[in-house]
Amino acid sequence: MKQCPIKEMPEREDEVRSALDISALNVVFPTKVGDVHVARDVYLRVGENESLCLAGESGCGKSVLALAITRLLPKKANIQGKIRVHGVDILEAREECVRRIRCRQISLIQEQPSLCLNPVMNIGSQVAEAARVSLGYSSAQAKRAALDLLRRTGIPEPKHRYRLYPHQLSGGMNQRVMIAMALAARPRLLIADEPTTALDPYIQVQLIELLQGVKRELGASLLLITHDLDVALELCTDVAIMYAGQVMERGKLERVVENPRHPYTQGLLRCFSEEKPRAIPGVSPPLSDIPSGCGFHPRCPLARPECATMSPIWRNGCRCHL
Amino acid sequence: MSIACLEVSDLKKNYNLGLWRKKPFKALQNVNFKLYPGKCLGVAGESGSGKTTLARLLVGASIPSGGNISIMGRNIREIDQRGRLPSLVQMIFQDSTGCLNPLLKVRELLLEPLRIQKKKIEKGHTLERCLDLAMLSKDLLERRPHELSGGQRQRVALARALILDPSVLVADEPAASLDRSVQASLLSSLLERKQRMGTGIILISHDIRLIRLLADDIAIMHKGRFVESGPARKILDYPRHPYTRLLLSSVPGQKRTRDKRFVAF
Amino acid sequence: MRILARHKGLFCGGGLLLLIFLGGVFAPSIAPHDPTVQDLRMRMTGPSFTYPLGTDTLGRCLASRILFGVRPSIGLAMAATCMVTLAGIMVGVLSAVFRRLDMVLMRITDCFFALPGMVLALVIISFTGPNPWGILLALSVPGWPKYARVVRGIARSQLAQPQVEAVRCMGAGPLYVTRTCLLPWIWPQVTTIATLGIGGKVATIAGLGFLGLGVQPPTPEWGAIMYGGLPVLGIAPHISLFSGLAIALTVLAFTLVGEGVHEAINPLIGEDANETMPD
Lengths: 322, 265, 279
Prior knowledge:
The structure holds 3 protein chains of 3 kinds. By secondary structure, chain A is of the alpha/beta class.
């Protein structure tokens, strides 16, 4: 792989060690109704061979982060801050460099695989295409690689299923195909955006095992974006909880689950842990209309007067006044 | 002893598939159960096990190939499909976006069932009642379905199902694509309805975590049959059928939590 | 204003159409002369002060004839379009809602599709004679299959939507389903096709008039005027020219409006949703 020019090399030695390093990230979308702050002051770090779960409800801005990391946000998005992937500043790098990184180092797995796959190409060709584009294989090599990948992702009878189309396979199978495509480039950073949503729990468990195996084999880091902490428990060691565009709590997953510090995290974990389901009152705010001060204060049972006016600072792994 | 609000015996549904409609396919076979007022039956199973077929049969959207469905003691075939049946049994669909007319505002959507059934609508009172059922605020009345979040849409669907005061409510994967906290609020609404109004609920889901919270009885469905059914605690703690055991163990996150407490987001 | 600026075609076509309409409606007031009065001394004269567009072979004022010609040409075209649209919607909706009728209705539609339009029109006129009702029939009969097919397609895809099942669970009958779930989706498409089709019908009326089978003299009709002007094309080209221009401009106006409506409606249907933010 060609080296990127000198000015894009990592500045400090220890930064090379983290697969993903986001600091002071702000993403703003200008719209007809005003500026929408999709991400505010986000700090995240995924070390080599580590796994972080970015958890939050729909509409909290987590998918935007996935697109920001791969620099696939629309041009009108106003992005400030630093995103470093294996030491390379994604936001400052040249288009060519970013494309190479997208090809070889990062792979994105998304939800609704049936919609992400090309409906008029058979699945084998799609995986082969991924292999060809990212590794420069010839057609024959790519086909061999595709068969191998299909087998490794647990698709039975790969030779026969090579020729099938996405609509002929179930959702779980399609997701395996997506994972196979993601593996083709042997990436060092896997970003999985809701990979198991809307699938049966039985299939989810199988896909989780697959992802665990993949991560182990590649020695890759994983950024899992989901709203289902059960899945995160199986795959990740760290967690960052997002609400209304901000990271509210961060830390080791086991610690956060057993001893949540932020009222939002506490509310979420209480939802199904008792005999009766217990929801957090209210609804999460749309990103165009975030409350002032702490974004969570209208729904927070422990809210104090200063929560409405002052934005809480980051303290002790948690963004809260308490 | 109260009579069963829903009684199903030996229910069967066959389809003919294939180009010439010659390949028979047994979607449902030998389904038997009784649902009493104020109780919830949880039907668990994978996609394709026949859960939606069962739901459609119970609401009268589909005609059974064999067997009997009785609602409040009367055979479903004898009940007027368009007049009486909707006030006896209603359904919440999985696809909340698809089942709401995108051209109507929330205000009209909430009153739609009453309009169709030609029931009296008192100006302010009825709408208030609908909003209470849906637990939505007044400012959402003027919005259209695509301007609501998934959870809000499902609430509108719930209000529409409940406004006719049905004795039986069939919920087909009501929380499928929702966030956990929204799922929790939907489930608590259902729980409240069950306890306060005595509505019988059939909760169909592939997610045992939800069924566990609401169901008094559980039935496990596989390839169109009930492979195991009984009181919820018994099925969850002492599953007998191998498929039941497989289903109960295939829940993400179970290995890492202590004392089987499901940690959910 | 911004909307109008974006849809220039709609604006221009609409403006043109408005002028034509007004011309037709106020023909008795603005026409300089009676269209049927002949002045044989002034036959085939070019445009002048008294006769703004000249006179035809029988000395009738061309401008007045063209103005009065708006009514038969466009009036018949619009009436025919209304009939065709209604017939098409009825057949389309019936075949989609009542599956058993579908087979029968669609075979009938196919038969009509197979017959060439102009030939069918001529056959009908030969039976009814060249009177306005005959023309109406001749225009409508070949036209409705297209609408029926389109409406059936839309109706069938809409009926497969979960919202129809949801509403039926509440006890809605076919009438309610048609009103709330089908018609709102049928109207935009049908309006677009209809507006585009009127232009074609104007041309067909002119064609029939050209063949002498349309509106009969002395009622002024553009096609007939054009036909009358052909033998004297060398000496008095203005007769065929101006009538032909009238036909062309009307068809153009309708086409612009039709396309403009199509553009205006489709983006709106898609734009209905607010710009959704990525999660």
